[in-house]
Amino acid sequence: MSHTPPDWWKNAVIYQIYPRSFADTDGDGVGNIAGITSRVPYLSRLGVDAVWLSPFYPSALADGGYDVDDYRDVDPRLGTLQDFDAMVEALHGAGIKVVVDIVPNHTSDRHEWFRAALAAGRDSRERRRYIFRDGLGPEGELPPNDWESLFGGPAWEPVGDGQWYFHLFAKEQPDLNWDDDEVRDDFLRTLRFWSDRGVDGFRVDVAHGLVKDMSEPFAPWTEVAEAGRTDGSHPLWDRDAVHEVYAEWRRVFNEYDPPRFAVAEAGVHPSRRARYASADGLGQAFNFEMQEAGWRSADFHKAIDSGLQQTYQHGSTTTWLLGCHDAPRVATRYGLPEDPERTTMDAARQWLLTDGTTPTLDRALGERRARAAALVTLALPGSTYIYQGEELGLHEVGDLPPEVLEDPIATRSGGREKGRDGCRVPLPWSAEGPSFGFGPGPARPPQPSWFGHYAVSVQAEDPDSTLTLYRRAMELRTALNTGADFEWIESGPADVLHFRRPGEWHCVTNFGTEPVVLPEGEVLLSSAPLEAGRLPQDATAWLRVSH
Hints:
Oligomer: single chain
Largest sheet: 8 strands, parallel
Structural class: alpha/beta
Shape: globular
């Protein structure tokens, strides 16, 4: 009988590991499963409740591992299933749960099913597992419609016999047909395979994209490109029938004690997000609004209100995250000049197109704001997700040369985007060595020389470092986060964000330019030193307020 509470995830701190850039034990420049195991003491000291692993499956890495060859194995470059089992045992031994990425929208083009589909030919059973359609023109030489891939270029690829297959992402990622029972049944086997190995939960990639309406006549791409519908009628995204899939998954999750947990990556209208987080579905869904928010009190206020509304709707808890493997790093986004014409995310992507030269990045400002934002997310009710390196205040690597870029967005977008490699550069663990302690040899992609200043070994000895702040915040959060109550405190200027949690725990953030007076009480933690007892600009403080 398990002693783990079934709802352990509702207020957890979950740390995202991108396995290929976390830690390397064999010197090939790529992180591996044994590397994660070797860093369990670090994760334990950080104080996280769980780790979420981005894909570690066999893959050609056409899209960073999200092109999966085999859902029930480990990429040989990263280790073996035995290495995976040893990692799970080590993490569980440290009281840390394990969440793995599941990629159900598409396989890789090297998956045995897709190879069989190509070999079997038109109208075969094997092709029904995917989305094949006849091309237009006398010989089927034109794509079935004008729809585009999210990575740029057409969403259809010809196979040489007059048929084309559909791919929402890279051409190496053919979309599965979720109207096919064989597809549905096979994923249930995959969920049980990992659950039986001790995996505690799943992060569901593109959770809103599985079920599609591919019936003719096809709507033009100008109409389909608008994705934010609220009625479930979009042909590709957020169709109501997708929840039938997750109801099946929930029945599998509930076979285990405690039930397995899942969080949906669902880029949907906020009014549609709660269904993914329902108790009959996946249980939780990512709320990306904090990640998209600019450094303004009003933006954070709106993102928090939206996230908490989800909690009240379905009895789940919401999620808070500032960054992930798909977004320019937090400290960099907050360190770039504000652009009224662009979001902070878009401004950072534009900056990447200049190889990080224009406009000028204010590193210190970005780190200061990232520290303040981290204390906001860790003070909120619900789950907080931290992307590896955020606890070090790492910046985006903006000047990676074209020859080391791996993200298909960089090539398929026709130069409109540089891609996501800059936030996936391997972590620095020490100030010296060919890869700053990442592994015995050089890292891939290469790390810049300034990474050494952010190394774990440097920050662990510094009482004022970002790593020390995260460790202290996580330790305090465990003691302070005793309930779900939340109340806004409207006091002082509009550019001050102030809320109260149970036990008179207050969180105050100063987005303004002048220091602000804090409520009477004990300051437990602040992201920057107080100035004559006042909270300075771009800083957050936690207090226990006196009655």
